[in-house]
Amino acid sequence: VRAALLHPGGPVPSQHRNGRQSHERRYAESTIASDMSKIADSMLQKNFVKFLLTQQDKKSKSVDTSEELDIPFIWNLLQERLGQLVHSKGK
């Protein structure tokens, strides 16, 4: 724009042309960097959600496993065995 104001209708001097190209290149590079950053953020978000879902699945499976076990039965069995062991050592 500045070059057009200085030289309307005429050729743009090379110093202005190079400056404009440099500015356009910086703009293009920053646009590409911004797009790459957005893509990387999106990938990180997706991986984090996948991680959370995996952790939730693991947690729910461990809860399911403990529900499958008869905890009161096992606890009573351990108390009986411990009581037997204590009585046998006391004799």
TrEMBL record:
InterPro entries: GIP (IPR039078)
One Gene Ontology molecular-function label: hormone activity
Superkingdom as given in the UniProt entry: Eukaryota
Region (Disordered): 1-26
Keywords, comma-separated and alphabetical: Hormone
Keyword Ligase in record: no
A Gene Ontology term for the protein's cellular component: extracellular space
Gene Ontology terms describing biological process: regulation of fatty acid biosynthetic process; regulation of insulin secretion; response to glucose; response to starvation
PANTHER family: GASTRIC INHIBITORY POLYPEPTIDE, GLUCOSE-DEPENDENT INSULINOTROPIC POLYPEPTIDE
Protein name, UniProt field: Gastric inhibitory polypeptide
